[in-house]
Amino acid sequence: MQLIRGGWFCLKNVVCFDLEGPLSPQDNxxxxxxxxxxxxxxxxxxxxxxxxxxxEGRRNYEPGDTLSLIIPFLVYHNISEDDIVRVSExxxxxxxxxxxxxxxKGGWSVYVISTSYSQHALNIARQVGISKENVYSTKLPLxxxxxxxxxxxxxxxxQMQEKILGSLSGKGDQELKAVLDEFYKSISxxxxxxxxxxxxxxxxxxxxxxxxxxSKEGKKLSEVVVVGDSITDFKMLEAVKNNNGVAVxxxxxxxxxxxxxxxxxxxxxxxxxxxFDAFASGGARKVFxxxxxxxxxxxxxxENLAEIHASCIPxxxxxxxxxxxxxxxxxxxxxxxxxxxxxxxxQKLVEIHSKARKQVRGEAxxxx
Length: 368
Hints:
alpha/beta; AF1437-like domain fold; 2 domains; two-stranded antiparallel sheet; 9 strands; disordered N terminus
């Protein structure tokens, strides 16, 4: 409760979702590159370059900045903002997301903090009922850029594309890095330099967005839930974990799992209701109690749902699990505490999450 002029009001709980993975399986940038011949291959080479820059700790470089690296190639191939929306319209929604968000909307403020281009993020948010004012994403005004770019400057992009599709993809990391470093330095001196105005919402920029949400909602980092799955989320997850909030890694990869404190692997988002309801009734402490109970007894619970204490499973989640009990394609939930894991325990969880990630995200699951 918080005192305001004229009386008291109840602050809502707050959850911030990454978009690609937790809400929709599509990697929109990857699919955009697929609109032209060999675009996927170019994306994968640039993604490798992104990994090199991330792990060397280049100043002002953030995980997810691949979305900045691909822009010269999008421009070279005349990809438009309408194309971004068109590709986004093909995206699926992760099973259970709409039911979860519909159920919690009365007591929770729901946000999206995503590296995705805004055209995609806003489309998915609209479909699942999240207000556009609650979406933080990467602004890409492609149609404006086209009016400011000298097409003659795109010749260097075509030349680099030929190199990538030729021998460059087979080179070692240092040679790849040297060639692409020089390419991006060169285009920065042309009219394409305006592309550097795009600031991808990943890494520390996600954390800054989270801090803005926390301030706006009158909360502390210990009083929010965040849900992520990949390297672009690690700073956001880590900050919430370090402040004793709830940092959920949903179908995460090996880059995300070390930074959360709660893991959930499943082919549906529905089981997260157990976490949300626990948080609403008793904060982070209650969440960890419920997660540990599921971790200890999950297999037995799923064999006999009647054994689960009501505090560990909302009625609608119990009904959902009954519905899916005969569905061979349903990957049952695995809840886990991510704190104090041994290396073997962490590796086992990576395998469990990898299986769920592959089932939910398909080819996009192998990226970042």
